[in-house]
Amino acid sequence: SSCSGALPEVVGNAGLLLDGEDASGITAAIKWLSTDNAAREQYIARGKIRAAGYRWEHCVERLVQALEYR
Question: What predicted TM-score, i.e. pTM, was given to this entire model?
C-alpha cells in the first residue's frame, strides 16, 4: 500500500508500505512476495486478522459510542 495519507494506519503490519511513485520498489515487492511463500502467507494471515477489525458492526458500535458521549 502507499505509505501516505491514512493508509499506514489502516494497513498496520498487515501489508507493505511503499512509495506509490517508486515503480522499482513496487516491482521488487511484487517479485519478493511472488517468490517468498512464507512471507506471502504471513501477510495473508495478518491481512485476514486486520480485516476482521473493519466490520460494519464495529463501525456502528463506535459511532453510537461517539454520539452517546456527546
Answer: 0.72
**Cell 458521549 belongs to which residue?**
69
Torsions phi, psi for 51 (to 5 deg): -65, -30
Which residues, 6 or more positions from 34, have their beta carbon under 8 angstroms from its beta carbon? 40
**Residue-wise pLDDT tens digits, 35-57:** 999 999 999 999 999 998 888 88
Tell me the pLDDT tens digit for each residue of 7-41. Answer: 888 898 999 999 989 999 999 999 999 999 999 99
- Bridge partner residues of 2 (DSSP): 18
CA-to-CA separations, 68 to 43, 62, 63, in angstroms, rounded: 37, 10, 9
Q: What is the DSSP string of 50-64?
A: HHHT--HHHHHHHHH
Specify the amino acid at residue 43. Answer: Y
Round to whole Å and give the CA distance between 38 and 42.
6
